Amino acid sequence: MDFDKIEKFVAKEYGINLSAYKSKQLIRRIENFMQRVGAKNEIEFINILSMDKNISKKFLDHLTINVSEFFRNKDLFLDLERKIKEHLNPEKNTLKIWSAACSIGAEPYTLAIILDKITPNKKHNILATDIDQTVLEQAKQGIYNKNEVKNVDDDLLKKYFIQVQDKYQIIDEIKKRVIFKKHDLIMDSYETGFDLIVCRNVVIYFTQETKNEIYRKFYTSLKPGGLLFVGATESIYNYRELGFEKASTFIYRKPGGN
Ligand SMILES: C[S@@+](CC[C@H](N)C(=O)[O-])C[C@H]1O[C@@H](n2cnc3c(N)ncnc32)[C@H](O)[C@@H]1O
């Protein structure tokens, strides 16, 4: 594949520097996408992207799908911290948490850091899943670049990361709090008994029908009183129909519990 041509086009069209992403996975992703839109080569592909704004937008989404960072939308994680204290009694209960579509692990490790902050002597269970084995391997490594930790407060950065040259490695103490597993939100069955499910920045790629199906399964997977935390553009307009209450703009609660 002539990656250079696509790289130049993407830089010009979307302002994204693909050389920062250059990896087998990205090439595989682009090839998959090219196949889907029926492009036989790079020139044909670039023509399609130039002519069809809708496909062009989808391609951009496709490219950024693995992007993640610690404390993504920081204010919302601060809100989550308050809601965990308010609703889940983490001092008393050992919480079972699921970070669904966790990508490179920044999200489940953020949860582990928050819980360590509020209950330093307690070990909660965090399951982190993704459909993509490559990102799961990266997540298990727990090594991040500056951009991915840019929202981490300095004191937390010092406490929970080891800086190795220009990279940031999550400390073992936090790493071992998270179990990573491959899981497809569409095809696989869901575990149950969760106090908190975090699913952010993935359902935007799914149809409304699939979204509803996933939210229904999350509802079943949550304990009564459990919380569902979604992405900053993903408020669930039909949350009542699905059985949830609103705990805040991006946090929903399954009624019941204490
Ligand atoms: C943009 S990332 C979101 C990462 C993290 N949740 C966040 O908000 O920063 C989307 C992730 O969803 C994963 N994904 C896509 N389709 C999926 C599916 N059907 N089941 C599980 N994960 C999926 C991708 O592999 C990718 O890692």
Automatic annotation (TrEMBL):
The keyword S-adenosyl-L-methionine applies. SMART domains: MeTrc (SM00138). GO terms for molecular function: protein-glutamate O-methyltransferase activity. One of its GO terms (biological process) is methylation. Its EC number is 2.1.1.80. SUPFAM superfamilies: Chemotaxis receptor methyltransferase CheR, N-terminal domain, S-adenosyl-L-methionine-dependent methyltransferases. InterPro entries: Bact_Chemotaxis_MeTrfase, CheR_C, CheR_MeTrfase, CheR_N, CheR_N_sf, SAM-dependent_MTases_sf. It holds the Pfam family CheR. Keywords: Methyltransferase, S-adenosyl-L-methionine, Transferase. It catalyses: L-glutamyl-[protein] + S-adenosyl-L-methionine = [protein]-L-glutamate 5-O-methyl ester + S-adenosyl-L-homocysteine. Residues 1-257 form the CheR-type methyltransferase domain. The keyword Cell cycle does not apply. It comes from the Bacteria. This is protein-glutamate O-methyltransferase. It comes from Thermobrachium celere DSM 8682.
